[in-house]
Design brief:
The chain has 8 helices and 7 strands, in the order E-H-E-H-E-H-E-H-E-H-E-H-H-H-E. The protein has about 260 residues and is an alpha/beta fold.
Length: about 260
């Protein structure tokens, strides 16, 4: 392998959940630009189909809409995928949900929905795709699983998003536990913790980017290439030796603070 191939995804087959919009779509675009064949899935079929049609100008992008919030939904998706591919080189567990409510009024629905999508689904989808990931893995090129957490799993934000905070913190630790097991099968699992990127989930960054940028040490919100670059690194040969780690892609919010002035 030459240095120019270090970040190449040519010949690789990737699956990205929640790939029709936001961070998932950013990653899908990056994977396609670097040579991967990409399957995207999302709950809303029309949106998933439209995104795949748009992204197909960059390479092979296939829409497979499914609801992955349930075990049956994950099982149906994997069965459909097995009808198309023998092995999968990269799985990106990106689909997510959030819920904000006052502590005294936080509902069970807001707990269960977020935990199911953000934590339960990544575990069981990876479990069900384990044979396909093993089939694609080798000593020379391990298969990859990339979980998408959040810096809210590392630090608190002011919003009362109890289940979201808990699910993303748990996903970061679950990544470590699963990585320790999957590496035995030449499957490398890692995690990305995004900060402020413009999306339907992060409406503050989408609708008020200047305001959010002012609170970010780097002085701006995340760009599409920031997210794509981190995911390409982890999915490519460049990231083969990164096992169980979480990379914060957040402009310095989680691990740095601006100086308040001279002491």
């Amino acid at each position: 392998m030459t240095k120019k191939d270090l970040f190449s995804l040519a010949g690789r087959v990737a699956v990205i959940t929640g790939g029709s919009r936001g961070i998932g779509k950013m990653i899908a675009r990056g994977f396609l630009e670097y040579g991967a064949k990409v399957y995207i899935t999302a709950r809303k079929a029309a949106a998933c189909d439209a995104a795949a049609e748009e992204l197909s100008s960059l390479g092979t992008c296939i829409s497979m809409p499914h609801d992955l919030a349930t075990i049956d939904g994950c099982r149906a998706f994997v069965a459909a995928l097995e009808g198309r591919e023998r092995g999968i080189h990269a799985l990106v567990n990106n689909a997510g949900a959030a819920w904000a409510a006052d502590f005294d009024e936080f509902p069970e629905q807001g707990w269960d929905k977020v935990m199911n999508i953000n934590l339960k689904s990544p575990f069981f989808l990876t479990q069900m795709m384990h044979p396909m990931l093993k089939a694609a893995a080798s000593e020379a090129r391990p298969a990859k699983v990339i979980n998408i957490a959040s810096i809210d799993g590392i630090k608190l934000n002011p919003l009362e998003t109890y289940s979201y905070h808990a699910s993303k913190a748990a996903l970061i630790y679950l990544t470590r536990r699963m990585a320790a097991r999957l590496v035995q099968d030449k499957i490398v699992m890692s995690c990305i913790a995004p900060g402020p990127f413009a999306s339907d989930m992060n409406r503050a960054a989408r609708d008020h980017p200047e305001r959010v940028a002012a609170r970010t040490p780097l002085g701006r919100i995340g760009r599409e290439e920031d997210m794509a670059g981190a995911a390409i690194y982890l999915a490519s040969r460049a990231g083969d030796y990164v096992v169980g780690e979480t990379i914060a892609v957040d402009g310095g919010i989680a691990h740095a603070s601006l100086a308040a002035g001279p002491s």
